[in-house]
Amino acid sequence: MERVVITGIGVVNAIGNTKEEYWDALAIGKNGIGPLTYFDASEHRTQIAGEVKNFQAEQYMDRRAASRLPLFIQYALAAAVMAHEDAGLELEKVDPYRAGVQMGSGIGGIGVLEDNAKTLAEKGVKRVSPFLVPYMIINMAAGQISIHFSLKGPNSTSVTACASANHSIGDSFRIIQRGEADVMFTGGTESAITPLAFAGFCSMRAMSARNHEPERASRPFTKDRDGFVMGDGSGVLILESLSHAKKRGAHIYAEIIGYGMTSDAHDMVSPPENGEGATKAMEFALRDAGLPLDDIDYINAHGTSTPVGDVAETNAIKTLFGEHAYKIPVSSTKSMIGHLLGAAGAVELIACLGAMEKGYLPPTINYDMPDEDCDLDYVPNESRDAKIEVALSNAFGFGGHNTSIAIRKFSG
């Protein structure tokens, strides 16, 4: 099978609209959570979010696309353009049927649906936009990336809630491993900070209501955590077969060496407290990589800041690694950027790549009240210098979807 490497990175989120901004912000524990400004949330239980700031779509696409495309597609296109430039790919030299796209999103164009439902109710059927369907459907982010770059190979979309991006990256890894493509644009995108999506999560009481101090609301693994904080943005990675990357002299960030996925088969939204499905996803990723447990230098946790989820993931790590679990740094970058739902896995794998490239462990900020049920090394509050050779990135989603991706720093 082909070996698969990462050669390009693009990212948009609450603390950085470029790879460099994002990695530098992670290193200093920058907080991107603040009062919600996209709409009037005064009647919502939660009024805070990790909003994207200072995003200028015209830098990455023509003015018409920037004015018409929904944000989840804009973010994806911007991240793809950045990843393409970062990889130094000359696509005119690549067989277009050997280059593809696999993206993930949990909700896609829900804002488009909301706006047109309101138009239908207030102005009638004839005023509904002809772009409703193509701008709403989740696969259109992958479709627009393929159109923009004339990529004619494998093209698909994973919709597995908060595991969507990891599934897309893992599936792209398999596509290249099997020899079905040389290059894949992959990751996730989300723009779900909308009145309806917020209302739904508020009704579930899944999000933090710490509106009086938004910068402290996303508090993974702390005793007084009260829910996740939603974030927006996108992460796109360029994956290539090692032979293709080496032939063109590409810079290689890391090699993907393992991918594991399972289902809890337990509940629509809650994981089992023992984290069994998450344990197995990590176990399968390490088995796929052919690695012993003590080779793992860092785990980027799903770590959403929910009471049940953080305990389940902690238990999963302890079940798999035993006493060695206490020697592995585990952090949640969601403490800084919020939870990007279907894009989470991509931006968090990019965090792992930054940690490898720059030699630091991203912190879990707001960690000021330890929980006896969450007793691992969560890299509290400040980054830490470290040499990371192998990392795991976890992403779990509603419906019981569990994914884990193992990467190794490339050394030839």
Which short descriptors sum up this protein?
single chain; 412 residues; alpha/beta; ten-stranded mixed sheet; two-stranded antiparallel ribbon; 13 helices; 14 strands; globular
Protein described:
This protein has 13 helices and 14 strands. With 412 residues, the chain is α/β, with parallel strands linked by helices. The strands form 3 sheets. Strands 5-4-6-7-1-8-14-13-9-10 form a 10-stranded mixed β-sheet, sandwiched between helices. It is globular and about 65 Å long. It starts with a strand and ends with a strand.
- Given as residue ranges, the uncertain stretches (5+ residues, pLDDT < 50) are none
Structural class: alpha/beta
Task: Report the count of strand segments.
Answer: 14
The largest sheet is: 10 strands, mixed
Strand content: 15-25%
State the shape. Answer: globular
Quickly count the helices: 13
The secondary-structure element order is EHEEHHEHHHEHEHEHEHEHEHHEEEE
Helix content: 25-40%
Strand order of the largest sheet: 5-4-6-7-1-8-14-13-9-10
The average pLDDT is 97
- Measure the end-to-end span: 17 Å
Radius of gyration: 20 Å
